[in-house]
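RETRY 2/3 - previous attempt timed out on the joint model. Re-submitting the same 420-residue input unchanged.
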Amino acid sequence: MLRTAGLPRPTIACLPAHWHNTPERIAPAVREKIRGIGRNYERIFVLYGDCGTGGELDRMLEREGVERIPGPHCYQFFMGTDEFTETAEREPGCFYLTDYLVRHFDRLIVAGLGLDRYPELRDMYFGNYTRLIYIAQTDDPALRRKAQRAADRLGLACEVRYRAYGELAAFVNRAMVPAGD
Amino acid sequence: MSDEPEDEIVLSELDDGELVQQMHDDLYDGLRDEIEEAVHILLERGWTPYRVLTEALVEGMRIVGIDFRDGILFVPEVLMAANAMKGGMAILRPLLAETGAPQVGKMVIGTVKGDIHDIGKNLVSMMMEGAGFDVIDLGINNPVESYIDALAEHQPDILGMSALLTTTMPYMKVVIDALKEKGIRDNYIVLVGGAPLNEAFAESIGADAYCRDAAVAVETAKELIAERRRSNSAAMNVA
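RETRY 2/3 succeeded.
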C-alpha cells in the first residue's frame, strides 16, 4: 500500500496475532512497545482495532498521547464503517476473515480454538453463525479458494467482498504526511 | 490373552468413592459417554439425583474451573468438560424436578442484542443450574423487550447479561436504563459477563457485579441473594 502510494516506509512493530484470544494482554503490551521504541520516533500510530480489550486500548493510548485508527475491529476499517455497521446489524451471525486470517486460518482459528484436537466443538463455537464473509485485501484466487475451504470446515456459507485496504489506506496516507505539512 | 488393555476401567466395578473420583477425572478429560454411564450407575445404586449432581458433577466442574483460572486448562478443554457435564445434566434434570431438589434462586439470562456468542452464557447457565438455581435461558441476540417480558413473566432474583463484542457490550446499559425507567431496576440483582468486560464497566453501567467466569457467577449470585434476603428480613423486623 505504501509502495503504491509512493510514501516513505515507517518502522512497523507487531504483537502476536493469537492474542486476539487473550485480549487482556493487548493494551499492556502495546504500551510497552510505545514506551520501548517511542523515544526514537517523531510520531507513533496504532493500527489495531479495539480487538476485544473493552476500550482498555483506547484508555491507555489516550494516556500515552498516541492516535489509533478508529474502529472496534480490523474488519470494520477494512470493510468500511458504514457497510460493516449495516452488515453487523442486519446479520449478527457473520464470521469475518481478512487476507491474514485466511492465510493463517489453520493456526489461528482451527488450532487456536482447539478444533484440531476436538473437532466436535465446531458447532459449540460456530453453531450460531450463518455466514463467513471474507473481506479481501487482495484479489487472489488462491485465497478465495482457501476462504471457501475455511467456510466448508466451519459449516458456513461463504461470501467474498473485495474491499482492498478500506479506511486503513486513508488513515495511513494521512499519517505518513510529515508533521507540519 | 484378552484383547482388552490391562488398564481398562470398568465403571460399574468401582465402589462409590472410586466412581465419583473417576467421574471427576472423566469430566476433566471431557468424556461425555463415561459421565452419562456413571450417572446411571450412581442412580441405580440409590443415590439421589441431587447428590449425583453436587458431589460428582458440580465438584468435578469446580476442579476444572480452578485449573482454568490457574492457566492449566484452556477454553477448548473447559468446553469439552462442559459438554460432558451437559450429558449428565440431561439425565438428572427431569429427576431433579421430580424429587424436589432445593432451589437457591431464579435467574433469567441471555446474550444482548447483536451478539450471538453464547459459550460463556451457556457455561454460566449450566453451573447456576448445578448450584440449584432455576435458570430461564433466553438464548442469543436479545432486545430490551425480551429481557423485560421475561422478568415480568418469571419474576427472577437475578438478571444475567452476556456479551463478547466491544460493539455489543454497551447494550447492557440500554437494558439497565430501561429497567430504571420502569422503576424496576432494584427488584433484581443484575450480573454481567463477557470477555471484553471488567468491573469498572459493570459499575459504570449500573450492574451489581461483573463475573469473570462461571464459577465466579455462581459465588456472586449466592452472596448477593443471601445479602438481599438478610436486608429484606432486617427491614421486616424493623417494620
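Chain A has a mean pLDDT of 91. Closing ticket.
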